[in-house]
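May I ask for a single protein's sequence together with how it folds?
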Amino acid sequence: MEIKRLNKAIAQTGYCSRRAADRLIEEGRVKVNGETVGLGVQVTDADEISVNGEVVTKKDETVYLVFNKPTGITCTTDTSIQGNIISYITYPFRIFPIGRLDKPSEGLIFLTNDGDIVNKILRSRNNHEKEYIVGVNKKVTDWFLKKMSNGIPILETVTKKCKVERIDDYSFRIILTQGLNRQIRRMCEYLDFEVRTLKRVRIMNVEVGRLRKGSLREFTKEEMEGLLELIGDSSKTEEASR
């Protein structure tokens, strides 16, 4: 039976990240088999872990899901918020979205109950590609494409250089390797363009393809193998923050 650190075991339940688990442990809010424990404790799958009195021990199989999010759905696990992604999907056990896709946007988002994989995917320094199709209110000019691809000053930084190409007069394709808050919308606003439609069509090696809007499916074997290969050398939160 595998022995693992308590923070990793909590993260694998999908409850929170390892760093957040460390804080909960330090605050005395975590118990193993009914006993409050400290940092560095090791556990096995046979141990019962509870946080704030709630048993979080992982009992469900690990799942990796692809969802084609419609507009109007909010990527939050807070089920008190109307139109939240968890209530919309109604999966039989706890899952959570990896990253975000804002409410007016649509397209590809991953969901899982494996907290240990999330940080590798989310770290912007790992250069994981995300591809979008964007519709705007003005003609897409060569000037606009050049400005967008070379970096735009938003949120007290300058966006990384990225790939941008025209689809037609009023739409373009953009491939990002970072995930600033409402990044594409802010970039367009800086150039006095308004985003009318925004759809994410690819994350790394996984494409939305023919998955219908509002539909959910599991990763294929090939997609999972490709994803694990792409994130194999990625830094986790604790390592990348040093």
Observations:
- The first helix runs from residue 6 to 12.
- The chain is about 25% helix and 30% strand.
